[in-house]
Every structure is written in structure tokens, then in C-alpha cells.
Amino acid sequence: MEIKILEAAWILPITAPPIKNAGVLIAGAHIEAIAKSEKLPAILAGKNCVRHNYGQAIIVPGFINLHTHLEYTILQSLSVEGGLLAWLPRLMDVTAGWSQRDRLDSIQQGIKEVIAAGTTFIVDNSYDGASVRAIAQAGLRGLVGLELFGVDQSLSDRQWQRWQERLEKELEDQVVKQARKERRLDITVAPHAPYTVCPALWQQAQQWAKVNDQIVLTHLAESAAEKKWFDAAECELTQFLIEAFGRIDPDFGNSYKEKLIWKEGSKSPVEHLHKHGLLENNLLAAHAVHVNDQDIDLLKANTVAIAHCPRSNARLDCGRVPLGKLLKSGLRVGLGTDSKASNDDLDLLAEARFAINWHKEQEPALEMEPRQIIERLTIKAAACLNREHDLGSLAPGKLADIAVFALSEDKNWSESNDDPYDLLLQGRVKLQALFVNGAEIEVFN
Ligand SMILES: [Zn+2]
Prior knowledge:
This protein is an alpha/beta fold. The chain contains 19 helices and 16 strands.
């Protein structure tokens, strides 16, 4: 088994205090030990190992991006004018004209960006599954949700059957098989949102996820319109659905009232999912912006996890997550960048900086220190995926998913600050190396 030792000025184990001038010992796919540099010779005596000394750098667990759509990476210039419900049809129009090559190029560019940001684990929502193979090939760790749509419950059996066929097709690929064998890759189901997937179809997805011990990915309570739609007879979301589903079913505009009958009787998207037994501890919900106290109680009682995407919410004019309340309730919350169609980049440290500034400005009492936000990119994000036992921190026995960030050469800056969490967050670090399962991944800078 290959043994590697990664040394640097700082090691941030996350679940233990930072260690100055130390090394991480990796044996195969796992971390074997962490020790101060002066103790390494004794630990390594007689062992044949590869030593990397990164000098003025910080070694951290690889970041976990809880919500992306890699396929939309090249859509950064897509107009967000008019907010989410005006933006979505634009996204559908542009991507409808894409070739498979266009989609793959976009995904590849996204993968380079998440790697450059020190991300080792991507949770990706995929329209057609193209990111599955790309993530496998890149050597990253990934959870890809094959998206599921369908509001007509009379078609749910057929739609579910079609989804399973898509899954089977992905599982046949040799590169995918290998990544699954290395336990780097999972494929799961992503019912798009409570307003685009009827309960009958979602329940089949939920059942499958339970049997297969998988996380279910969705978008939940992202816009005010979504909340209003469940609470009122009609609103602009109805128009959006007529337009969107009318593209595949020309009769949808005439029959939508009876097709959407399942939405009746709930005041909010959270309450709707709860009513149909769809809130569970394997649900990872992106956004959760429009949640009231009762919704938060329901999310907490059912231990749902939240992927918070603040820059996307701001750009699409969706509003601000009541973060103080979510955190106070004890809900599991991590960060996601969402796609570049609604964000500047796929950089989680930039996301974290924005989150701190935005929430502190609106909720000055909110406690959000550099250490706490870095935890949201690592151990707390792992907890959102029920993976805190083997990911999200640097400790013996954990998987060796590691990012090494070089500190700025300005020593006055790096040596005058004794808080490595703060150094990491300030935006003056650059990714130097990345490891997944102990294997080094090529870094694009
Ligand atoms: Zn999304």
C-alpha cells in the first residue's frame, strides 16, 4: 500500500484545533495519522513513503459542494432579469438547442472549476446524466441526482419506469462501474421540486432511495411564488407550469387544473411534502428560502438537510434564507454554489464569504466566525449527506479527501495572522494540490 505524507505550515483537521507545522500520513485511501513535523521521523522510521512538503500552505479536508448543475457552467451570461420564473424558461430554451458535445464541454469546464476551488465532493443535479461519467473520469467524489419531472399522476408509473431505465444505462458504463467500485460515486434520484413532481411519482423515488440507501435531492421553497402557489388557487407559477409542461404536452393548458389537483390542501411546499410522507432524513433540499416557523419545525422533526445557495438566491431575486432560525433549530445546513447560470463561479470559499457578509448585514446577531463557515464546507456538509463518519475532517481512519491551499507569498500577511480559518477565507489562497481517496488529482490553475 502506498504511503504519502503531506506537510505544511498549517493543518486544519476541522474536528480538532489547527496544528502548526505538521503532516498528514495517508495509507492507501485513508488517513493514518496526523502529527507535528518534528515527530514525523519517528513515525515514518522504516516506512517507504512519498513526502510532499508544501511549505507556506494550509491542508484541509476537501470541500463538499452540496448543490450544483455542472451542465450549466457555460451559461454565466444568461439573463436573470425577472427572477427565477423568467430565468427558467430561458435556461430551457438555450439548453434545448444543445448537442451532447455542448453539454459535455460545459460539464468539463465546471469540473475544472470545482477542482480549482478545492472541492473533492460534488453533489450534482443532472438533466440527462452526462455528468455521471465526467465526475467518475475526473477522479472526484460525486453524488449525481438524475432529475425527475412529472406532474400528471396518471403517468407516474411510466415516468418512473423511464427513470429506472436511465439509471440502468448509466450503471453499465465501465468508467462509472470503476468509480463505484472505488466507492467514489453514487447515482441517485432528484425529483426537481414539489411543483414539478407529483406526490405519486415522488413516492416511487422515495421508496427506491430508501431501499438503496440513497439521498434524495430536490429544490425546495426556493421562490416566493412557489410558496404562494401551494397557498392560493393560482399565481404566476401556474403560468410557468403551463408554459413548461406545454412544451411536451400541447394539451396541458386545457387540462392542468385536474392534473395539478394534488397541490390542494397545503399552505406551503414543506407542508405539502410532509402531508405526502416525503420529508425524511435522506432528503437534501436545496434553498429552503421561503420557510416559516412551522415549516422549520417540520423540516427539523423529519431531519431534512439543507443545501444553502446564497449567491444564487440573491441573483435570482429569491430572497434570503432565515439562516439564524435554521441554525438555531439544529437543522443540518451546508453550502452549495448552484450552477454558473445563477452564480459568478463554483468557488465555495467565495460562497462562504458572501454568506457571511449577507447574513451578518441582515442579522447582526448571527454568530458566523471563519471556523464555523469552513465547517459548513466540510464536516457539516458531510453530515448533510450522512457521511460525517468517513468524510469532512482530517482524522485517522477517515477517507483521504484533502485540499492543499498555498498561502499568498506575502509573509507579512500570512505570518501576522494566527487564525488559519481566517487566512483560508480571505480570498488570497490558491489551490496547490487535491486528493480523493488518497489519489492525487490534476489541478488546473
Ligand atoms: Zn439547482
